Amino acid sequence: MEKPDTDLSMFELTGLTAVVTGGGRGIGRSICLSLARAGANIVVAEINPETGQKTAEETEKLGRRSLSVKTDVRRKDDVRSMFEKAVDVFGSIDILVNNAGGADPMEMAPPLSLTEESWDSIIRLNLKSVFLCSQAAAEIMIGQHRGVIINVASLSGVFHFTQGMHYGAAKAGVINMTRTLAACLGPKNIRVNALVPGFIVTDYTNELTYDHHEDMAALRSRFVALQRLGEPDDVGGVAVFLASEAARYITGQAIMIDGGFPHFPEIVPGSE
């Protein structure tokens, strides 16, 4: 008996509306464009209105409706206002991608060198923001009895790195929050998952490594099974999958997008 062909329509997002925080550049921009290519309308929640508007215009060129809203995801009033505008324009929110986050390169210090101010700043941007946006989105989605929340975590939340303990703690918190929200919101037909990108090449990651990004790329690639660093579109495609009906029985998961890290290359005798 022949097996039925795969129903690729399960991957389509036509008619759905997605909010992507930090969608102005890098991984966030790629997620916006990937969701738009799959059919979704896009709300770009971005603190930088110029990059946010640019992404919105790019999504419109793909034939989708788009809205850019200047938003500081660390502020509850900003978050609530953004969602109100999104619902006013599109009528519903079907997908939320909590992508906004990061750390200033100057804040990536050893644990005993971290300041209280730096700790508070990183936790507020990378963890509190996910709480504020998820809570606001969930209230809308519960009324619809459907929705998808996708949180962007990091390898730093899974593995230990000696620089940036506060960033790692925040991203580990995002993974735990993902699982807790999935348990709480599952009965409301709302799925919650996390993306865990590995070493993804963006303008931001190049800033972190300053003038040594080529050396750092070679070093990091050595410990990735696929022997290359990731690109933003490597993350965008997985976001589309998790947002779609193809992933309708997946929730509470942290999906690693790391090319096979950590990979320890075999040491060839005589090559040491």
State the major sheet. Answer: 7 strands, parallel
Which value, in Å, is the CA radius of gyration? 19 Å
Report the strand count: 7
Fourth-level CATH superfamily: NAD(P)-binding Rossmann-like Domain
The CATH class turns out to be Alpha Beta
Approximate strand percentage = 5-15%
Mean pLDDT: 89
Question: Order of strands in the sheet with the most strands?
Answer: 3-2-1-4-5-6-7
Order of helices and strands: EHEHEHEHEHEHHHE
Uncertain runs are 268-272
* Structural class determined from secondary elements: alpha/beta
Shape: globular
**Helicity level:** 40-55%
Per the CATH scheme, the topology name is Rossmann fold
Distance between the termini: 55 Å
Number of domains: 1
CATH architecture group name: 3-Layer(aba) Sandwich
Number of helices: 8
Describe the structure.
With 272 residues, the chain is α/β, with parallel strands linked by helices. The chain has one domain (10-201, 232-255): 3-Layer(aba) Sandwich (Rossmann fold). It has 8 helices and 7 strands, in the order E-H-E-H-E-H-E-H-E-H-E-H-H-H-E. The chain has a 7-stranded parallel sheet, sandwiched between helices. It starts with 16 loop residues before the first strand and ends in a 15-residue tail after the last strand. Residues 268-272 have low confidence and may be disordered.
